[in-house]
Amino acid sequence: MGFIKKNAFLLGCALGGIIGVGLMLWGMSRMGNVRSEMGLAKRLYGDLERVAGNAVQPKSIDAEKDRIRQARDQYQQVLAHFAARNVRQPLLENLLPDPGKGTQGKQLRYDFRSKYQGAMNGLLLRLSAGQPPSKQEIENTADYLRKKAMEEQEFGSGDGKSPQSGAGRSGPGSSGPGAGDSSAMPERKGPASTQAYWAALKEKAQNDATMLTCIDKARNISCYANTRGGGSFDLLKMYADTDEAAPGMVDIWYAQLSYWIHEDIVEALANVNDRAAAGLDKPWVGVLPIKDVRSIRVSDYIVDTDGSPATNLRAQPGDLPPDHPDAVFTHAAAEALYDVINVRLRLVIDVRALPEILHEIAHDKYRVVLNVGYEEVRPDLSFRGKIYGPQPVVLATIDLQTYLFYKAYVPLMPEAIREQLGIPQQQFEDLVKELRGDAGEEADSKEEQDGEG
After folding, report:
1. CA atoms within 13 A of residue 246's CA, in its CB half-sphere
2. pLDDT (tens digit, 9 = 90+) per residue, 113-160?
């Protein structure tokens, strides 16, 4: 023990040396792995240098930026096309979206009611439409026939023969050919008995005030339509309103919206009849394809707030259009770019013209034909009431879906309607700026920044 105590320092140094040699030998045994890892890192660094030297990434990034920029440009072109094709002009300038609360704003709201009433009446003019004769018109013709018969009985015809009553003219005030003109009673292709009945009617019509007046009416219109209560168009209460109070902005908006949709559809129907009339010497309802606009009905906005399916879904009766996304095969509801509205048409038409009518309504327009059905309309050979002519006709029911592009009309939308549809104020302000052209350069600059990012 004395030896150990005396040489403790030397023994400790020896022990430390032995441990150091051991660690050195252990570390040297690990040098192979370190060299391997360092070699791998060097190779990876060399690969990265070669990639950077060949500039593969910058070219790929630039190409991708160009592709994104082109896609954005094409998207903006599509939106601009939609906006241009869906331009909506209000019936009255300076009214929408808000005329203000002063005297001038109130007067504009009064003026809109008159504009709306006149515009809906104007749809009848575009269709060259009319109605069957009234009782007063028939009575006027009856008076005319009675007076004529008395004159013929008293004075004769000059050649000793009584003329055909009504020959050469129809009822008083007529501008078209009368029942004495054989073209007023078109021959019906069908069984001999039907032809014989028509031939007998020609003779009978000469002295029948109702038949003469109905024929005369039909010969001077292109189709039947009317604006009386429950008539051809989906008229809002404002149409017949005589209240002293000015209409509210919500009522004004729905009247304007309904008119836009009616205007588009009536224009399509009138175009079909106009093309058919171009090749005829005497166009009239009996020889034109669209004979009777029974009804045009417009739904409210189709909005599916929670995406849940409708409960107790059923087809709408009569002339009412579907009012829920699940009621039609598109399942479409309002989206970020457009609103959706359904329309139902009920038209008496020449059945051969149905494909052309569908084409004109939907071709190159933002409408989808949802459903088409039709039923036979049996000919009324009495010539009392509506006269549809000699060809087979049907009552067609056509369901449509029309899309209203936001950019085209949201800048005109009153605040109450925007709140109802959940349109943010910022989106409205951006669309107003874009409509004025204020946001063009700002949008281009933002897209450039996004592209760079």
Report:
1. 16
2. 999 999 999 999 999 999 999 999 999 989 988 888 888 887 765 444
For residues 33 and 249, what is the distance between their CA atoms, to the nearest angstrom?
A: 82
How many structural domains are present in the chain?
Answer: 3
Predicted TM-score (pTM) of the model is 0.71
Strands (E) located in 33-151: 129-130
Burial class (CB in 10 A: 0-12, 13-18, 19+), 372: middle
Bridge partner residues of 345 (DSSP): 296, 398
Question: pLDDT: is 431 or 236 the higher one?
Answer: 236
Instruction: Count Cβ neighbours within 10 Å for each residue of 132-141 and write b for 16 or more, e otherwise.
Output: bbeeebbebb
Range of the domain at 451: 426-453
Cα 168 from chain centre: 47
- In this structure, the strands spanning 393-405 and 367-377 are antiparallel
Q: Considering only CA atoms, which of 255, 257, 250 is closest in space to residue 409?
A: 257
Residue count of the chain = 453
- H or E stretch including 399? strand 393-405
Q: Do 248 and 111 fall within a single domain?
A: yes
**Residues with Cβ < 8 Å from 338, sequence gap 6 or more?**
366, 403, 404, 405, 406
Please tell me whether residues 314 and 302 are part of one structural domain.
yes
CA distances from 216 to 1, 131, 169, 198, 285 (A): 147, 11, 9, 17, 11
pLDDT at residue 85, rounded to an integer? 63
* E strand or H helix that includes residue 430: helix 425-436
One domain for residues 290 and 416: yes
Q: What is the DSSP letter of 330?
A: T
